[in-house]
């Protein structure tokens, strides 16, 4: 792949706010990425993930039904330990919780703090998927 070529990823977005979901989807699609699934309920996360096996999952921290992005990430990483997961949140404490949990040691997990720039979202996707 030359420097001008850019790899495009299959991305799963788990976000319950439709405006944010559409914003992320439109932006990432415009950059050539394929948004392969959007999910809003905890019950659908693993079944959707199993079905599509995305390159990266973007998960909002606050999800319906008393579920959060950490719970969703744990579900994914338990079954697929090499998965790439971006948790998006307004809570700085989530970053500390991830950093202090041995469940996430040597995993491809990153926390992005809102408000974030869309370019930052894409940059984080590229970095986390390419992390060894």
What can you tell me about this protein's structure?
By secondary structure, the chain is α/β, with parallel strands linked by helices. The protein has a single domain (10-130), classed as Rossmann fold (3-Layer(aba) Sandwich). It has helices at 18-30, 42-52, 69-79, 92-100, 118-130; strands at 10-14, 34-39, 56-60, 62-63, 67-68, 84-89, 108-113. The strands form 2 sheets. The protein has a 5-stranded parallel β-sheet, sandwiched between helices. The protein has a two-stranded antiparallel ribbon with strand order 4-5. Strand 1, helix 1 and strand 2 form a beta-alpha-beta unit. The protein is globular and about 35 Å long. 30% of the residues are buried.
Approximately how much helix is present in the residues? 40-55%
What integer is the average pLDDT? 90
Bin the strand percentage.
15-25%
Number of domains: 1
Kindly list the characteristics that best describe this protein:
132 residues, alpha/beta, Rossmann fold, five-stranded parallel β-sheet, two-stranded antiparallel ribbon, 7 strands, 24% strand
């Amino acid at each position: 792949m030359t420097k001008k070529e850019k790899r495009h990823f299959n991305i799963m977005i788990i976000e319950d706010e439709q405006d944010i979901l559409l914003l992320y989807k439109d932006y990432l699609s415009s950059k050539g990425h394929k948004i392969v699934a959007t999910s809003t309920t905890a019950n659908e996360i693993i079944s959707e993930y199993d079905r599509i096996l995305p390159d990266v999952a973007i998960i909002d921290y606050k999800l319906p039904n008393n579920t959060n992005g950490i719970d969703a990430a744990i579900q994914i990483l338990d079954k697929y330990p090499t998965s790439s997961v971006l948790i998006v949140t307004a809570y700085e404490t989530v970053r500390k919780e991830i950093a202090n949990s041995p469940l996430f040691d040597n995993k491809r997990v990153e926390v992005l703090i809102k408000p974030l720039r869309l370019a930052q979202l894409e940059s984080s996707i590229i970095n986390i998927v390419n992390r060894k």
